[in-house]
Design goal:
Blueprint: H1 9-17, H2 29-54
Helix pairs in contact: 1-2
């Protein structure tokens, strides 16, 4: 992602640090649980990619 994605870093960090459930509309409880697990994991991956590519 690189330096151009640095402005998105605070939003990714807020998602990672969030302690309440992220409102999603899954078709079943299992789908909602899967999304609850995937969204923070995706934010962690995004943070990792932003910081890895932003290093000089």
């Amino acid at each position: 992602m690189g330096r151009q994605a640095l402005p998105a870093l605070p939003a990714a960090m807020a998602l990672i640090d969030r302690r309440t459930r992220i409102p999603v509309n899954g078709s079943t409880r299992d789908a909602e649980m899967m999304l609850d697990e995937r969204l923070p994991a995706a934010a962690l991956d995004a943070r990792r990619a932003i910081l890895a590519d932003a290093a000089p």
